[in-house]
Amino acid sequence: MARLPRLYLPDCAQHVIQRGNNREACFYEQADYRAYLSFLKDAACKYQVAIHAFVLMTNHVHLLVTPASAQGVSRMMQAQGRKYVQYFNYTYGRSGTLWEGRYKSTLVDADNYLLTVYRYIELNPVRANMVSHAAEYPWSSYQANALGKSIQLLTPHSLYRQLGKTEIHRQSAYRALFRGLMPEQDLAVIREATNKAWVLGDDRFKAQIEARTGRRSSPLGRGGDRKSAAFRERQDR
Question: Which residues lie in Basic and acidic residues bias regions (predicted)?
């Protein structure tokens, strides 16, 4: 099946995954993580993309972002990716590509899934058995969102700000979200939406995205009456 085109909408949150080519490591030393975040910060500022959450794993990266323009995310990822590859190749005396082709992304229904994606991203090191709690992993936004560390790269989402009237209250409420692991159903929904370029949201949100973009936001149902009006309507989109 041909790849679906990415969906680009200004002021709509997106979950982004960038993987190393052949799942190979993208980070070896602490300096590598710092360099990536520095390049990302510069690119996000240049192309007006707010970054709400991130995690840098050994061979891939997750981001939760909101662009001010339709092309902001793609331009940011291209700019920081190019700079980091130059840095990485020079540092380790290598050449060629580092990233696995296109980054993957999905639009996120903020009202229903935003904080779930925050958790999904920052719990990655726990699911990978690298740490026992998100607080133990140094290269994620949990350090700021939950523990108050200053990370200039980050811009809190408005829904994060609604967790409390003060930073201390917001951080406390945010930490409470991390009691226990995420349900497998939530993990599966997020992974499918991001890997297959579907929209992560409820039916109303998906319908709004389809109306604005003219592109299907979720896979067609299997089976059923293929001659029904609903089926024909979906096929026409």
Answer: 223-237
Phi and psi of 89, rounded to 5°? -65, -40
Using one digit for the tens of pLDDT, what is the confidence trace for 107-162? Answer: 999 999 999 999 999 999 999 999 999 999 999 999 999 999 999 999 999 999 99
- Domains (range + CATH), the chain: 14-236 (3.30.70.1290)
Instruction: Output the pTM of the full model.
Output: 0.90
State the Cα angle at 75 between 202 and 81, rounded to 5°: 105
How far apart CA 237 and CA 215 sit, in angstroms, is 6
CA 110 – CA 201 distance, rounded (Å): 8
What are the backbone dihedrals phi and psi of residue 87, each rounded to the nearest 5 degrees, phi first?
-60, -50
Name the more confident of 224 and 214.
Answer: 214
